[in-house]
Write a structure and sequence with these properties.
The chain is mostly helical. The chain has one domain. It has helices spanning 4-25, 32-52, 58-81, 87-106. The chain is flat and about 40 Å long.
Length: 107
């Protein structure tokens, strides 16, 4: 298997981070530009996920996609939005990253 499905999946996960963070900036979908960018990121994320799933197991692809989205969203939430950081949150993020790596290795 080539690296392309994993590249598509990684991009899909990054776009998931974009739309998750973008939701905060839409102010309940009342701001046109953030709303348009958020919807575009949603479409890109799902489209890339679908392409990646042509070559990757569905469970692995979905778990990695949500894992990238979760980790990226938490990190940007801390950096951009001032979300709280605690040792337990960092430990949990580490476990998610370990799970993503394990699924990649096992596939």
């Amino acid at each position: 298997m080539t690296a392309m499905p994993w590249t598509l999946l990684t991009l899909a996960g990054l776009f998931e981070v974009g739309w998750a963070i973008g939701l905060k900036y839409t102010d309940g979908f009342s701001r046109p530009l953030p709303t348009a960018l958020t919807v575009a990121a949603m479409i890109a994320s799902i489209s890339l996920l679908g392409l990646a799933m042509k070559h990757l197991p569905v469970g692995t692809a979905y778990a990695v996609w949500t894992g990238i989205g979760t980790v990226g969203t938490v990190i940007l939430g801390v950096v951009l939005l001032g979300d709280a950081v605690s040792p337990l949150r960092l430990l949990c993020l580490g476990l998610i990253v370990a799970g993503i790596a394990g699924l990649k290795i096992a596939t």
